[in-house]
Amino acid sequence: MQRSWDGGAEALAGLVSGLHIGAVPHTGAKFGHPSGHHNEWQQQQMTLQPTGLHPEFAHLAAATAPYQRNGAPLPPPHANGYGMAVPVSTPAPQQHSMGWGGQAIPENGTFKAPWFGKSRGRGGPAGGRGRGRGRGGHAGSAGPSSGRRGSRRGYDGGGGLGGPPDELSIDSLVALVGAIPASQPISDTVYQALFQLDGRACALLLKDLSKAGLQFRATELFDWIRALDDGHPLQSLLDVYSYTAMISLCITEHDVDRALKLAAEMKAKGIERNVHTYTALMNVCIKCSKHTLALDTYKLMRQDRCTPNVVTFNTLIDVYGKMGSWEEAVNVLALMKSEGVEPVLRTFNTLIIACNMCNQPREAMAVYRRMLEEGYSPNSTTYNALISAYGKAGQLDKVMEVFQEMMYRGCERSVITYSSLISACEKAGQWELALELFQEMLREQCTPNTVTFNSLITALAQGAQWQKASEVFEQMQTQGCHPDVVTYTALISALEKGGQWRLALEAYDRMKAQGCRADAIVYNAIIDALWETGVVWVQRRALRLFRVAVEEGHFHQGKLVPGLARAEVNLHAMTAGVAMLSLYAWLVSIKQLLVQHGTAAMPVRLAIVTDRGKGSKEQGNLVVKEAVQASMALWSAPFKAVIDGGYTGMLEAPGTEVCEWLLSDNFEARIFTFYPCTDITPTVANQVKSRDSVQSVSASLDDPDHLKESSVEQRCSEAFAAVRHFEKTHCLALQNMGHSYLQRRSELVGKCLEVATRLGVREEAGHDGVLLMDRVMSTSLQLAPDLLDLLAVGCVVIAAKQVDGHASAAAPVLPPEADVQAASGLPAAAVEQMEWNIRQVLSQDTAAISTLRCLKLFLERMGAHHLDGPSMAAMAGRAMQLVTECLTEMAFLNCRPSVIAAALLYVERRSRGLIPFWPSMLAKLTGYQDMSTPELSVAIKAAQRLCGRSAGIPRPMSNPRSLSRSPSAQQLSTSSSSSAIGSGSSVPSIATSTNANSSLSGSLPAMPVPAAVPVSVAPAATASLSSSELAAAVAAATAAAGVGVAPAALGMASHVQHVSSAEHALSALRQAGSSVGSGSITPPPVTAAAVPVAGSAVLTPEQLLQQLAPAVAGGVQVPAVPLVPGVAAFAPQLP
Q1: What is the DSSP string of 538-574?
Q2: Could you report the per-residue pLDDT of 994-1024, keeping only the tens digit for each?
Q3: Helix (H, G, I), strand (E, B), or coil: what is residue 605?
Q4: What residues contact residue 607 under an 8 Å CB cut-off, 6+ apart?
Q5: What predicted TM-score, i.e. pTM, was given to this entire model?
Q6: Which helix (H) or strand (E) holds 261?
Q7: Which helix (H) or strand (E) segment is 654 a member of?
Q8: Of 503, 682, 718, 901, which is least packed with CB atoms within 10 Å of its CB?
Q9: How confident is the model at residue 617, as a pLDDT?
Q10: d(CA 1071, CA 1063)
Q11: Strand 566-570 relative to strand 649-654, pairing
């Protein structure tokens, strides 16, 4: 019983799983077997195979043996190398004969498969080329022409070609015409031969001339007949057959106008236009992308009371599919049934393909199930369409199952098959499998076409495999396959994801040189690739490309003329780069209109559309929507969010308010902040712009020869290599930091920054000093609380000496006017003693690369060092302020400096609506491609809280200076080349512990110092904690913080009772380094929860635990690594 059509939306389940391929009995009534033989045949087939055939594959009964190639059976589907294990039982040996197509034909009595693949009806073998209408086989193929009846060797005037031997055959006429030079007209011999033909034979001649590449001769011959006088004997050749043939040939020339003219001429001459004429005309319209005209032709046919046939209905389904009207395409099946026209296999194939074109894969699967229910057997075209449907649905496992079945059944695997498979892999993000299938395709000696290469390059682009995409692109051309717009779009996308904007630009130039016209998709890809870099001179190049695209008719927003009632810019469905440049160009155009024509020329209302809502076929860009709202608010623009109709993202403002905003100083003063591509920098804003000033800005910001880019890229890459090395060989340990230190850390941070400012050294010294101070306290050093100020000053002095490179005897380590005692309020001798102690604690390794230096490196990579002061400040925004404020946030102590800098820059740019939030050049530099990795997520959340608290954050007692123009990248690559700093000969040598890596648990050897400044350390804890007791301390800290982690989950339930107080828990945390093992520390977790810390207020042990516990117990534990000079201590890895 046939299942309901409406219930076919569910996916095809169990396609091959558990499948046992073999013949399945059919009812004698359905197949028309003689009753005397059917039962015997059925019993024989049932005994020759295992049971368990899926009901949806019962139609496969006609081909039971494994497919063979050159006499050797193929391996079973479960061994095809694609990891798709499919249990298949091998059928018992059976005697078969091989068909012309290479497939096994079982000896099944009098049963014969119908020619069109259906399980009932008349005709020859499925997909064959026997007698009939030649409509068997896969979609897109055709059998012999319906006009070819009898032999082709001669013509007797009655439809055959068996005339006298001296008469010319159709083949001879084609050869005769082909021998005529193209510059000469057709000879009289050919025209005389036309007297031997009738309309059908003439139609055959015209078609064969076209197939032989002589389309122009067919047109010349037919037009010569048309030009004859009325009553001429050859006028009889102008009948329905010759006209229909000539209309069909218009497909080759894509000449729909000529086809329509010929159809009108038939009507004027009283020549009947039959179903073949209308169907041919519909096909011409489809080929010329005139789908509405094709539908009108069908309606005209119905008006002329011409009954459509199965080919007409197939064409109608194709029309609906290309128009996106899949519901109407599906309804054609019911229409055919109502008119008594039986669908054939090609009808279902065309309908499945139509659903695929309309992005309705589930409907395509429902059509496939209906086809099976009606008894049709799938062919290669069916399988190809089904692979495409599952691929569009993202069901790669089902795609591979269909491919398995297709191989097992011995169906031809064409270039369409492999292209569909690779496309499915691309949609599923499986570029490795796509590449494997491509190699399999080549081994099968199946020649790939442009569609295949396009799908593969797109798959590689999805996987950010730009090198492999480039290799495939070169291979494509060596194989004689010409790239098209889709190819270049995919290649540019791959290069953009790999941060190779220069190669992307070369690909664009190559495409233009090839004569391939760039469309909106290409411009979206290349402009976005340039804009996403975040580099000033590259974004200026993106603006120039955008202007070229606008000149070619893309991204048009409507002409702005005086007196409009409404003007809007539509950014919906644009890539981020194109959207930002469209908005920039629109705002500049409005201001030009205002300057040239005055305030009266302003539109009454203006709107920025970022999302057209559910009514649009394309989804809006949410990043653009967020960025536009943020930038307009920060820019003090009058545009406000409104709800208008179906739009879900629109900002609108009255023209008078926009006019006032555009004429304000704020508009030009901040335009560079949001659009670094502009020539209006903060220095020249709100001034009269001369040609010289504009050229001066362009000369300083443009980079036509990529010289700036190459220099900056190399310098920053070397500098970040130093950052990466530092972060791999150093770390902090929060659990080792003492209670007193953590209580006063915010105050000590302010002390470091204040001392650096008073010393007159660069601000990096203060930030590096804070990091150095944290490194010292991560060694489990038990330092007396009254020495913490001295520790902070000593760290700043060390950092100041090495901020521009390591100290040497030839150069002063501090500015001459520096007075450490005056700057710090502490005796210089005590500071010098503390410097020596710090170096001993850190085994002479005083390297420190702070978040500030990483941030400056990132800004330099974006081109900041080629800008003037105001422009640099506009690019940096609040990032410099945030990097100072983050020093007091304990949540950041668990993250690397480069990660903190990346998070701060990302959050700050996002808060201002600056696209890209995280530039692709910084992603390439750092390797931080995914901002959602655990460590980055922690840092970003903490940065968002920090950025959102515009007030109420305890700020250090310092006066951070503006962003300097020092060569930070060069400093990083040089100052970090060595890991140890000598303290100089002024500090006497003092005996140290033989184990330089062990944590200092006793008193430090002290030098004589003034009595007013006590120099001593707190006594070490006498008890040594076991690892289980340490775990109990962490559990207690977690419980104190209320994070809800059960002690049992931490594997320490039996030890919680040993921790009697918060002080005990802190003590356990403080001794983490020494308790794990001598000379080692436990690095901080990579994915800890971010916890804000109060300012300089004194914290109770319980409060301190509540802040420390998530950072200690909330992340991934990392094994302890010995701290040996020259050996990497901790290399945190991002997943």
Answers
A1: HHHHHHHHHHHHHHTT-S------TT-SEEEEE-TT-
A2: 333 333 233 333 333 333 333 333 333 333 3
A3: strand
A4: 566, 567, 568, 569, 639, 642, 644, 650, 651, 652, 653
A5: 0.63
A6: helix 256-268
A7: strand 649-654
A8: 718
A9: 60
A10: 12
A11: unpaired
